[in-house]
Amino acid sequence: MLVRTRRPLPNREYFRVGEAAEVLGVLPSAVRYWKGHFAPHVRPSRTRGDQVSFSRRDVTVLALVRHLLHVEGLSIIRARARIERLLSEHDGKVDFIELSPTDAPASGPGAASGPEAAPGPGGTPCPVEPPAGEGFLAERERLRAGIAEVERRAADAEAEIERLRAVMARARLVAAAMADL
Fold it and tell me: What sign does the dihedral 49-50-51-53 (CA atoms) show?
């Protein structure tokens, strides 16, 4: 699977948050956010100075996360499920992921080419150009967060309805018992 990165992955074993973000072409806050949401697959260690340190494997998985979220447009939940499936199919190994920096020519299956592949955010190939570039991504994330909040509130409301139904059922039992007296 070809996954584009902003820069080539340097030939070393560990990367700090900012270095991983630079390779991926995202803000360090995005790396920290993804670290939490993809915790089973991204397992950074801590240095003696208590800094987060990502392995080459972690950065490769984060590149796949970025690809699934920004290029394929998947939600966090669907991206997590896809990563779980891909890693389980490959026994947890990431060697099926080919990292290609944006300044390197794309090749192989899955590489976009031709006029229909307009560059998307961060220079990654995208079959359809986003309506407003980087602003589109921020708006999409804001809307997704809003949807998640509405879903959470709906679940809370359903729980409250169930609680009230139980109260009503108890009240009916008490009323029936009092009617028998």
Answer: positive
